[in-house]
Amino acid sequence: MARDFGRHAYGAAAIIYGALTLRWQDLNTWPQLAALAKTPYRESIVYIVAAVLIAGGVAIQWRRTAQLGAVVLGAFYLLVAVLCIPGIAAAPLIYNNWGNFFEQFSIASGALIAYASFVSGRLSSAARAAGIGRIFFGICVVSFTLEQAFYLDATAGFVPKWLPPGQTFWAIATTIAFALAAVAIVTGRQALLASRLLTAMLVLFGFLIWLPALLADPHSHFNWAESTENLAIAAVAWILADYLRGASAA
Hints:
Blueprint: H1 5-24, H2 34-37, H3 42-59, H4 66-82, H5 85-90, H6 95-117, H7 123-150, H8 152-158, H9 167-187, H10 191-216, H11 221-249
Helix pairs in contact: 1-3, 1-11, 3-4, 4-6, 6-7, 6-11, 7-9, 8-9, 9-10, 10-11
């Protein structure tokens, strides 16, 4: 893996999110923000969200502005995650509501790790912040495991039918892979290997599931939103792998 490539992919996902918001002129990418779209200031909010994502995505690409970009994007994704909490409170037994929270929170955790990667002169605080981000992300991977397990049939439906030995096999196999990655990342044991393998698996999801879906229906908001979210979460795993590799080499 190229040094810092995860950070660049993370920023690219934010830029795509912002471009989609401008293209659609709505906030459908984040149902949690739908209430804001009903205000008289809907158009302004759409442009603000797009500007924040694009500016943050561009800023994180350059080392001089990467910390600022991480703060901007982390704050945005954390806000979206927090806005998932009312849905959880209203229907706590529906795991999809919890899954929505942890998906957004996982992307926010990537910003914390990216920010810590550029802390200079405060190595202990950087390591502490990155460690917190790692644990947060690992907890989110636990949620990915549970979400796939609870919705196994739906998960299997996303697996390409042509892929042997079968859709259910890969749904179970990837659920187990998520579980193993979660344990390694949370405990810190073999976290570098786990984050690398998790990155590879999520990238494969993009190529095998979401890219064909986009080619089949390029006008689908769902396909674009899910493809970009998959890219963003893969980028977080890659950011973690980049950080852990640098830490182990230091």
